[in-house]
Amino acid sequence: MIVNDAHCHFFSTAFFSALARQKADPAPKVGLYAPTPDKRTHVEADLQVRLNDLYRGLQWDDPGTPEALADRWVQELDASGVRRAALIASVHGDEASVAAAVARHPSRIVGFFMLDPSAADAPARARHALSEHGLKGLCLFPAMHHVPLHDDRTLRAVEAAAACPGAVVFVHCGVLSVGVRRKLSLPSRFDLRLGDPLAVSRLALAFPHVPFIVPQFGAGLLRETLMAADACANIHLDTSSSNGWVRYTPGLTLDAVFKAALAVAGPSRLLFGTDSSFFPRGWQRGIYEQQKAILDGLGVGSNDIALIVGGNFERLFPL
Ligand SMILES: [Zn+2]
Q1: Which of 161, 241, 268, 296 has the fewest beta carbons under 10 Å from its own?
Q2: Which residues face 112 on adjacent strands?
Q3: 39 C-alpha vs ligand 1 centroid, how far in Å?
Q4: pLDDT tens digit string along 197-220?
Q5: Which residues surround ligand 1, an ion (CB under 5 A)?
Q6: Is 17 within 8 Å of 48 (Cβ atoms)?
Q7: What's the burial of 272, exposed, middle or buried (CB within 10 Å: 0-12/13-18/19+)?
Q8: Prediction pTM value
Q9: For the chain, where are the E strands, in sequence order?
């Protein structure tokens, strides 16, 4: 059976540099995450020292160049029997890192990138990333960037993606917690009201030829995610992460979540993912084993399981 992972993070040196800058200036006055100009020179001067401290504190490996990190990912996929993975550039402005990874391993890596629609050049960035850079997924985190999904700035970014053949739009909804920010004690002033799957349905209806992906079954907003998926045939759900949000609904199990998602969206709109991110931990085999066991336990047929764990990914991202 072909396994493709629709949700992994590409934690590049540029990603960690952004976190190190935020850690050096945790209370920026401009925007949410941008360092204040007066502190920038000072921070840049000892950025490498700060990065080394950060890796040591996290006990994570230095990712090195994007090419080196791409090679590490491919080694990891090989060792795990995974054919392809979507790797997300996980900070605004880091498209080039994941683009370098895609250029190095085009048959193994599909490039996604986080975009902050409040950036003045957001639509142009999206166009550039999805055409020149060869990336495939525009990732919106409305709760993080404080830009509502019904805002015109979001619409302009999605419009730009819709004009690029083969592009998908990924929208993080529901609860958002970024483990690495917590570990580094970085403030995360996320506005959870903005990650509303029903607002994704409005976008998905406006761009019916664009596949939308709501990760983690809507991360706590399962009912709204299923309503959105029922209303829009172009909304897909990814199964990634440990799905710890199930604890918000008393008695809910991941088995029941899969059952409901299969009943509403069907097997051709579920995309297996792990949410793997850093090394040395690497690819999260346990997530695969847990979800495969659930699908087997529900009596899902082997053709449908093949779609969920790999086939739908191949259809969305043909080589
Ligand atoms: Zn993720």
Answers
A1: 296
A2: 88, 137
A3: 30
A4: 999 999 999 999 999 999 999 999
A5: 275
A6: no
A7: buried
A8: 0.94
A9: 4-10, 84-89, 109-114, 137-140, 168-171, 212-214, 235-238, 270-271
